[in-house]
């Protein structure tokens, strides 16, 4: 692996390698010292979990951490981003963890030539890809289920604008998980082969093992969205959540919109914070593999 | 100790334990390696001294430092602060150093349940509490006086809006220091038992061993304040400062408002920078105790 | 050396000492551990290269890194910068890397008395001085030329507003490099003794060994500047760049203004990224010398 850009670039085998390593970090049986590695975070969109999780992964790998802040950078002097990154590369940055509102920018950047080796890690691109989120989600799922055959997972919420949904679907398909998507018509987006689409909650939740709720992303939704109607028909409540289902959410949660707040007190919802915890180990594994591939 | 929220939660004995440890750090006879501890600063109000002092304390304890920046966080996506912190906790943050304009928020947050152990340290809350400032102030005082009995300390300035005054009064009372407060009527605030209140500088400064000046906090004062009249009646000058008194100030100083700038050249004023220096050791001691209590 | 403020304060011998040390860092034959040193960056103007380069230098020296952010500091409460820095000094900051729009502020600050030893490093001041840029530029030049006698270097662009030009001219004069400046009349600024001034590109580029392009600094130029006419007469192109000349640029580049973008693909332009790379070693050398002089 040279970069981590998208789930579609990964084979099931590579994903399992990431998980083996993540699990070793989690159990404390693997330690890595990347004292000569220099990793920069470059977030052009807001973040709490993902950014802090990567920062912790960098620290736990004993690598050097840099935060590139676009607001006070030379981008304000008219420099283009490729030139900025090529300069960071010349200065000695070995890996860039980037979040950006553009769907394709990170792929374009990763395909260019740089002064020396540099790895790109996609920490969320536009509405299409958030591979480390999907990887940590499935890592969390794998820890909870003895077998993955016959699992049904229902994604509910703003599928159309969700890079989390896109990456999860791509990943779950590789492992033959049965995927349902539930949303009002205007939030379903383009349909993907092999996925069941529902507009009725009862049908979509029936015998589901995992409910993966998404955030209603007010900042990305341009169509009119009727929140009252969404809540009435799609909010997860104590009444409609299947008894034994794991409830997942990438965070941040809009309480009492996609999930009724009392649901968050239930045992089913503990998975949500496990996701946050597991993210660190998965990101450590990814960074460790990319930096090691560079000989760092 | 699980948190450091307020002076009122501390016994005199606990305070002395903090000071013993701070003194050991100052003398270089104690070293701590909290390599597995992850501490985040979370400042919702401006700060130079306190934030930098905590950052240095974190570094000197060999802990991992994180800066949570509200402006670029998921708080902008509608997440509430408890959820944000619980996620940071799941990610692996062990302690949060927080400054906030709300008087009670940090206590409320500290009283809640989290994914795993997490300690809160109050780095200034609203107008009521700034415990590490009071602790470093009194640590500075203790180093200068062989005995604390019969010491008189006069706090002068905007008592009403000062969390520094509130915390100092709470702490000084525990050690039986004679406390006077000096301010114009409208900046005196609610009177506290056991404290002498003055509106006349000459009386308040008479035979005082320590003068503790406060900043006129323009950002918190909503009432009309007559700066000219304040300067005329309450500014500390070469003429009114008692000859042998120690002059203290938590900083930042509005020069020529609460203190005439030439006073800052006097030997009496050297204490002000000693306060800044001592703060690092006191904060090291506090963090060291809280992290050790977590087994880190 | 106590500070690094300006090229004019340095002798040729001191510059050579910096280069010897930088070269040792580059070759990996010198390692420094400044574990007890605390270095703060303080940038009041945008920066990518310089700030990241200093951050990497601090990390590679194993010193502790702090970022002072003016926006969230007590400067917003009315504190003056000297007091802020004196407090940072008392807290334990040993060196300050400062960029500021004021030409003289850093010199004034460095001339004052502080609580304890503190070193100032000028990372760009106003329009007059950017010593570490000049030092890394000449370090890059020295690596490429067996002998420096008879070298001709042409600086082209906005000489009048360029601290890079000022510092480079001061440095190149110490080493007897033949210097030409090329710019339209209104961007030439005050003429310096020993420098040839040109308004005609062909003459200025004739037999030049090095072309050093400057950025057209739109944020500093108050006079009307005719970009179309600048491009027509002064843009560096494949046609006018001397065949064997090294092309340098401090970055960021306004592509297709000062340099045609296809020129950047040429072998001649590789020097630009070497500059970025070399900056880290030169800054390591400077910080190492200043911190060592403090016994850190």
Could you please describe the fold and organization of this structure?
Three copies of one chain form a homotrimer. The mean pLDDT of chain A is 94. In chain A, helix 1 (12-27) packs across helix 9 (270-293) and helix 2 (49-60) crosses helix 9. Chain A is built from nine helices and nine strands. Chain A is globular. A five-stranded parallel sheet of chain A has the order 7-6-5-8-9. In chain A, 53% of the residues are buried. The first copy, chain A, has helices spanning 12-27, 49-60, 81-91, 105-110, 131-144, 163-174, 201-205, 227-234, 270-293, and strands at residues 38-43, 64-68, 95-100, 119-125, 152-156, 178-182, 195-198, 210-213, 246-248. By secondary structure, chain A is an alpha/beta fold. Chain A has two domains: 7-130 and 279-293, Rossmann fold, CATH 3.40.50; 131-275, Rossmann fold (3-Layer(aba) Sandwich), CATH 3.40.50.1370. The B-C interface holds B 43, 46-49, 52-53, 55-56, 59, 215, 217-219, 251-255, 273-274, 276-277, 279-280 and C 38, 40, 64, 66, 68, 72-80, 83-84, 86-88, 90-93, 115.
> How many separate helices of chain A?
9
Distance between the termini of chain A: 14 Å
Reported CATH architecture of the largest domain in chain A: 3-Layer(aba) Sandwich
Average residue-wise pLDDT of chain A = 94
Reading the helices and strands of chain A in chain order gives HEHEHEHEHEHEEHEHEH
Strand arrangement within the widest β-sheet of chain A reads: 7-6-5-8-9
Strand percentage of chain A = 15-25%
The number of domains of chain A: 2
Most extensive interface between two protein chains, with residue counts: A-B, 25 and 24 residues
Instruction: Give the helix proportion of chain A (percent range).
Output: 25-40%
Extract low-pLDDT stretches of chain A: none
Under CATH at level 1, the class of the largest domain in chain A stands as Alpha Beta
């Amino acid at each position: 692996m040279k970069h981590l850009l998208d789930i579609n670039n990964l084979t099931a085998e590579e994903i399992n390698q990431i998980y083996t390593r993540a699990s070793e970090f989690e159990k404390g049986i693997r330690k890595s010292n990347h004292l000569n590695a220099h990793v920069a975070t470059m977030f052009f969109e807001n973040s709490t979990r993902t950014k802090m999780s990567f920062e912790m992964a960098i620290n736990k790998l004993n690598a050097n951490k840099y935060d590139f802040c676009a607001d006070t950078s030379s981008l304000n002097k008219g420099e283009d981003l490729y030139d900025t990154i090529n300069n960071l590369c010349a200065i000695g940055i070995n890996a860039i963890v980037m979040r950006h509102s553009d769907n394709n920018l990170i792929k374009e950047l990763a395909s260019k030539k740089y002064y020396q080796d540099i790895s790109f890690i996609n920490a969320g691109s536009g509405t299409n890809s958030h591979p480390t989120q999907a990887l940590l989600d499935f890592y969390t799922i794998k820890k909870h289920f003895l077998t993955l055959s016959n699992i049904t997972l229902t994604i509910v919420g703003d599928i159309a604008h969700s890079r989390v949904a896109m990456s999860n679907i791509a990943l779950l398909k590789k492992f033959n998980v049965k995927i349902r998507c539930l949303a009002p018509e205007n939030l379903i987006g383009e349909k993907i082969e092999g996925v069941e689409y529902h507009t009725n909650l009862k049908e979509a939740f029936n015998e589901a093992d995992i409910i993966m709720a998404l955030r209603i992303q007010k900042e990305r939704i341009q169509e009119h969205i009727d929140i009252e109607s969404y809540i009435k028909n799609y909010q997860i409540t104590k009444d409609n959540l299947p008894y034994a289902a794991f409830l997942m959410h990438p965070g941040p949660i809009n309480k009492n919109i996609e999930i009724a707040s009392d649901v968050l007190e239930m045992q089913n919802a503990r998975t949500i914070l496990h996701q946050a915890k597991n993210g660190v180990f998965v990101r450590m594994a990814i960074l460790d593999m990319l930096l090691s591939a560079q000989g760092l």
